[in-house]
Amino acid sequence: EAQVTQNPRYLITVTGKKLTVTCSQNMNHEYMSWYRQDPGLGLRQIYYSMNVEVTDKGDVPEGYKVSRKEKRNFPLILESPSPNQTSLYFCASSLTGVNEQFFGPGTRLTVL
Amino acid sequence: AQSVTQPDIHITVSEGASLELRCNYSYGATPYLFWYVQSPGQGLQLLLKYFSGDTLVQGIKGFEAEFKRSQSSFNLRKPSVHWSDAAEYFCAVGATKYGNKLVFGAGTILRVKS
Q1: Are the Cβ atoms of B49 and A100 closer than 8 angstroms?
Q2: Contact A50/B100, CB-based, under 8 Å?
Q3: Which residue in A90, B23, B71, B92 has a CA-CA distance of 20 to 30 Å to A40?
Q4: B1: confidence class by pLDDT, cuts 50, 70, 90
Q5: Closest CA to A45 of A14, A66, A68, A71
Q6: How many angstroms separate the CA atoms of A70 and A26, rounded?
Q7: What percent of chain B is modeled with pLDDT above 70?
Q8: Which of B102, B103, B108 to substitute to test the interface with A, most A CBs within 10 Å?
Q9: Would you place residue B98 in the very low, low, confident or very high pLDDT band (cuts 50, 70, 90)?
């Protein structure tokens, strides 16, 4: 089954404790992206990757890092999480950045 | 700046009534257009998309949308709403001229009353 998986689905952590949210897709897509969803703001892009070892900032990259060492994986790293990063995070993949994007189930992160 | 506007934050319709969700965008060229649905606690699922051709597109779950270039709109419609349609709906726009990404509207929450 074609899908995007994210782990964990739920995470509660404390300020400053580094964390990683994993994302993996099995559709051989070149483009992958991370979004955060906040009430009234829709989805805002954090980072995206057009291919292996090619990443770029989206609209709200501050406080986040990503890497793309393999085509299928695109982890999101929060080196020092803060409460304003409490949000719902989605990973997505697609053939290109302006094509239909396939979304993972989401990761709800709470930073205390 | 390029933007996507969904003017209605919340909409409530009766089950069986018709539905129209509005989406307007500001781009200089004809973009790629999408509608996604997000059920509570779920990820986003694509309802339909428009790239070119016939301006009335059909999607899943009985939804359709019409691209109107003159109005820069891509409104989503359904002739008869079911209680299971209660969800949040997002319009998204992509244009390579303005970056390699989709830009999402803020979403419209649909409530269905019986």
Answers
A1: yes
A2: yes
A3: B71
A4: low
A5: A66
A6: 12
A7: 96
A8: B102
A9: low
Among A56, A81, A53, A76, which residue's Cα sits nearest to residue A4?
A: A76
State the smallest CA–CA distance between residue A41 and chain B in angstroms: 5
Judged by CB atoms within 8 Å, which residues 48-67 of B form the interface with A? 49
Residues B30-76: tens digit of each pLDDT: 789 999 999 988 889 999 999 988 999 999 999 999 999 999 999 99
Q: Which of A40, A97, A103 sits opposite B100 (nearest CB)?
A: A97
B44 bridge partner residues: B38
Tokens 């080196």 -> residue? A79
The two structure tokens encoding residue A84: 């304003």
As a residue count, chain A comes to 112
* Residue A80 C-alpha, separation from nearest chain B C-alpha, in angstroms: 26
* Separation between Cα atoms, residue A85 and residue A65, nearest integer Å: 13
Residue B83's CB: how many other CB atoms inside 10 A? 11
pLDDT confidence of residue A97:
81
Tally: H helices and E strands in chain A: 0, 11
Question: Given an 8 Å threshold on Cβ–Cβ distance, is B95 in contact with A98?
Answer: yes
